[in-house]
Amino acid sequence: MHITKRGVTYHLEGVQPKTGMPAPDFHVKNLEDESKTLKDFEGQTLIISVIPDIDTRVCSLQTKQFNQTASELEGIQLVTISNNQKEQQKSWCAAEGINMEMLHDTALDFARAYGIYMPEMKKLARSVFVVDGSGQLVYQEIVPEMTEEPDYQAAITAAKDTK
């Protein structure tokens, strides 16, 4: 699979999971350096918002939009994942006044498990995954043009439909 950024094509490494299948497990760390895996969110509907770089305009918009929307939804957990360093993520959260579950995938474990690593850019592809409480992948969107935002409403609807 590939995506574009302003007309330039970038290849995604690996195989993307399919909806209806068990969501791939992953090992990442949060801002407190605690390890997090898919099992840590078992029993909850999980929205995984993946961004290429927290310090860019569209990634900031995506993170704020999902954070605002998900905070209004009961029983739905939101996480944002990027391969930014922990310090970059912490600085962004502090500057924006946002307290959320931000996960850093500097080892690229999540990126490889979900087939969204772009080796040419050394970034994760902008994407959204929704996992139901039993660990099934019920929604995925890998945004085809990196400079565009994801379909927030489709992801939220998919998450609500698991209830």
Automatic annotation (TrEMBL):
Swiss-Prot/TrEMBL keywords: Antioxidant, Disulfide bond, Oxidoreductase, Peroxidase, Redox-active center
Q: Which organism is it from?
A: Pisciglobus halotolerans
Pinpoint the Thioredoxin domain residues: 17-161
Question: What is any Pfam family matched here?
Answer: AhpC-TSA
**This protein is called what?**
Thiol peroxidase (Atypical 2-Cys peroxiredoxin)
GO molecular function terms attached to this record: thioredoxin peroxidase activity
Reading the lineage from the top rank, the first entry is Bacteria
Signal peptide positions on this chain: none
PANTHER family in the record, alphabetically? THIOL PEROXIDASE
UniProt-listed Gene3D superfamilies: Glutaredoxin
